[in-house]
Amino acid sequence: MMNLFCFCGAKENVIEMPVDKMALDDVDTFSLGDGSLCDHYRARWTYYGDKTALVDHVTGDLLTYSELLETVSQLAGALSAIGVTARQRVALHADNSMQSVLALLALEFLNATTVACKTSFTVREMVYQCTAADVEFIITDKACYNVVLQSLDQLPMVRKVVVANMGSPATDLRIAATMEDLLKRRACFRVPDDVDPSEDEVLIVFTSGTTGLPKGVLHTHSGFIAQFRITGPSGSNVIRSTDVCFQWGPLSHISGNLSLQLALNVGATSIIGDVKRDLRDCVRICDTHRVTFLIAMPVVLKAMIDLLKINPGGCSTLKTVLVGGGVVSVSWSKEFLSLLNLDCYRIVFGMSESLLVCATPDQEKWITSIGLPMPGVEMKIVDSEGNALSPNEKGEIAIRAPCNMKGYDKNPEATSETIVNGWLMTGDCGYVDEQGVYFILERIKQMIKCMDNQLAPAELEDFLISSHESIKEVAIIGLPDDKVGEAPAAYVVLKDEVEPSDELRKQIADMVKEEFSVYKHLYGGVFFAKELPKTDSGKFAKTDLKKLILEGNMEIF
């Protein structure tokens, strides 16, 4: 029989089945079972009680963990009342806000599957992803819903649209409800009792499509709970219950989703914000809310370095920073550490298909690596035949972990190519040293083969960024060349006060020639650009860059 929550709009009128509250002195000793995320969070949030869970930076709205449990359960009931059911796929297409976070959590409680959609989507991209994922409901917000409404004619399977942060009653008949309406409704939430944690999909995130059309990555309840075990107090302890975490990463990206869930698991406080339009907000929000914990992409790290130089003393409460989502420049890491008094700075490694699996200890001497596998995670380096390689031999990083994806949605061929005998083939080139420390070089498909030698663009990029004071950003790609195979070419964004010149171009090429082997020289040339194409997560979109260059559509100097 299902547990039943009846919410009637006020806490004193809540009728609920008792939650098994774990009567432990130390919340860090919680045992992580194999149930659903709903069961897991109900127990945890009941224990955390009146501790602040969420703060919306824009609206100032605040929820304690007790209020969060009540509100999410009520919203789950309201969504159920308008037709959302278990295992149904629901697109979440909204900027970070209190309401979008509540929607995500309510879908988890219902055992529905959230399909993460980027807010930058065009109509074409929205139609592709919703069609590929068999989406039946869409939750969007006022800033994004025009794209959704323009997509509906091509999405006949979508039954209803809900809009968050509308601020006024919906007048378009295609909108079934606003989030404000749903949060006010009296609704009963039935806790699902038929969840299969290892099979039921709680989240679908799509790959960036660098190796073809974007693929839907399937994550289960068990995968997330395993991630809590791996990263929690009994694992690598990446986040603590006393932390105040800035949730800047978009929920449509695995890092933004995961950062939020890790905080909610341990009872930390999350500040909900969105810095995609202006990274200067990152420092302001950290100062306003006395943020102690941040997960950052390399592009955010660099932006914070530039801002902290202008505003010394900013982010003074920040104590723990995890950096991942791309190869992290050693020079950026050292510069960032010189500007802040951190207790813990860790390079982390993970991907859409694996969640977080590897991290450095909180010591500066490790920042050239991605560290050690987290507890419960196995890693190895393999050759093209899948054979394990010896220390310091370069090959593909493979991962075996309970938080690995279930597979790619409706794509058994790609799944079997990526998960081989239980090992997830990452597509990343790296090596492990004699101490078991892992190092990442580059995406295998972005490695450049020049003069029959493989070179990692990140090696040259890191050197140029750290060695030439005029360079703001640089991306190295390989261009087809009859003589050398692929000719390394540098595409450089200069700092604002620097003008491009032939002298500067020669200087950059000569620096590489003096410091690196002959096959790493910039035979493809040095080019200056006003900006470089990036993904939503801030990584260089090198496939797009190469296409623009080869088609002659890139403005370069």
From TrEMBL:
Database matches in InterPro entries: AMP-bd_C, AMP-bd_C_sf, AMP-binding_CS, AMP-dep_synth/lig_dom, ANL_N_sf
AMP-dependent synthetase/ligase domain location: 45-408
Main subcellular location of this protein, as a coarse class: other
Subcellular location: Peroxisome
GO molecular function: CoA-ligase activity
UniProt KW Endoplasmic reticulum keyword: no
Any one Pfam family match given in the protein's UniProt record, by short name: AMP-binding_C
Annotated keywords: Peroxisome
Domain of life: Eukaryota
Descriptive protein name: Uncharacterized protein
Upper lineage: Eukaryota, Metazoa, Ecdysozoa, Arthropoda, Chelicerata
